[in-house]
Amino acid sequence: MSKLIRSLMVMAACLAVMGCLSQAGEKVYRIGGAAYGLSGEYMKLWATALERHPAVTQGLVQVTVFDGRYDASVQQSQFETMSAQKYDAILFVPIDIEAGAAAVATASAAGIPVIGSNTRVNSDLLTAYIGSNDVVSGYLEAKAVIDKMGGKGNVVIIEGPIGQSAQIERLEGNKKALAEYPNIKVLEQKTANWSRAEALALMENWLTAHPGQIQGVIGQNDEMALGAVQAIKAAGLDLSKFAIAGIDGVSDAITAVKNGEMDLSILQDAVSQAQGALDIALGQIIPNYQPLSACWKDYADMKWEGGKLKVYDVPWTPITKANADEQWAKRQDLTSR
Amino acid sequence: MATSTDSKGASRFWSFVWELRIIIALLVICIILSFASDYFLIQSNLINVLRQVSINGLLSIGMTFVILTGGIDLSVGSMLAFGGVVTASFVSNAYKHVPNLHPLLAILIGLSAGVALGAVNGLVISKVKVTPFIMTLGMLSIARGLTFIYTNGMPVTDLNKDFLVIGQGYIWFLPVPVVIFLAAFILAWVILYGMKFGRYVYAVGGNARSARISGINVSFIIFMVYVISGFLCALGGILLTARTSAGLPQAGQAYELDAIAAVVIGGTSMTGGKGALLGTLMGVLIIGVINNGLDLLSVSSYYQQVVKGLIIVGAVMLDYFQADSDR
User: Hey, which CATH number is domain A2-132+269-314, 3.30.70.20, 3.40.50.10190, 3.40.50.2300, 3.30.429.10?
Assistant: First the structure.
């Protein structure tokens, strides 16, 4: 029965496509990119990568990126707009794992496929999801810090905004690694809201409260790890005596790793998350679509499988001194205007 | 004429008592914290506190001028970000499309950017008579947008080492940002209490109409306080940029709240005409000391927000109490 419906839908879609073709020569698909906010470097890279997807540059797809302004209700109204305008698909980066379900339902009711990207959303109606597992990154960064400390000593954890899914899952990963090393003590753990300036003041105060006792800094993102680097420098302490790691692979963090100021940044691959999501969306609406983005060749573990999987896991890439130059070159390529 | 001098003297007296109250409050908080933490009352920590408050301090000085005229400036955080990224772009090795200038020249350009935004605020408020709340609310959005347009949403990095001194260096034992903050404070003090301009600021906020009748160029005074605010915001943004080694386009979000809080805690009346710069300094220090102390004591940041809110409301309640006893 469902097969019949599906084939009917495909036929309907083909007719619709043919209709468009006859009118305008070639059908241009309209895809909405609903980003939770464009103030940070990460989402900016995501949006840039999306606009540079081969399908966009070749004119097959017209992409509109919406700035969710870090507000679930703003994203909700953007979904209503896209549904009213009958977008062909929506790529969705929700501000929060719980907050986006209503938005997905809105699009789903209008028959528009929604591909989650970067941040998951708790909804059965999501067509597919492509992103990186934050628990894994939290584990990897904590492990790197602990390893550099030789498995013993004191660490501090600088957290993201409490309650955001990235903070919750990265902390879970941090704790998983810490649990394996009973000789590591967590001296302090507090939020700096992803902000470099806040983390700077926080770390200054911690260095005062625990003079000479902190050996490791686990920053749940790069900006905050960089704030800690500044605080340690400002206090006149020797950076090489600290193990410092962050997550995301923002440009400044890659530089800091190159200079030996940070030990590790874990690159979250904005390009693959954005371009992969667009390929998955096109796979939903174009029969026998073959993905155009290079990201499917970048990772052996991330298989296309006809674009029909529910979840695509984009692997993390640890950036250390060994590969920082290579990653820096890649980033320059993406950010050059 | 004699009565007006008398009441002025009385209100001067009350504002003096009021200032003492805030100083006492600050001292009490410091005493409690020095018992609670062994690390509070040490030189390096006190210097940290001063450095941490210097940026909010600059914004709060400008905010004091504005609120004294009965206005408000909601755009301080956005102007801070704009001044910061503009300056950063001129000392960044990564920004190829703008020239790499001497740090002082870059700072001058950044300050001019802040002055320009402040001047737009001032012009529209004083000439077109758009209320300060609406105009600066608009500017909050405009300046933030300009910041993102200018930087394409990316941090401005790879900054000239000489420039970073202004955020990370020391003059004798004092961090440069602290020295700049103190210098700005003294300069503001001289303007507010040693020059005619300062008296006019109070007069405009006390009663704009009678100020106008007595020959004061009210719209010029109003224009100038927003220019001063824009200038100090850009200066704060430049310090923040040098302190964090990057021009961050999202810097300074919600900073207006801390600046207004410091002014209000300092006893300056939101309706204008009454208040003192010294109170603002105390307000800035109280906020800074509490943030620092609660970090030292490992208190969750949730409590930090509650405590700050209670102090703001408490300070305003005392303000009303004082206003009642004045009558």
Answer: 3.40.50.2300
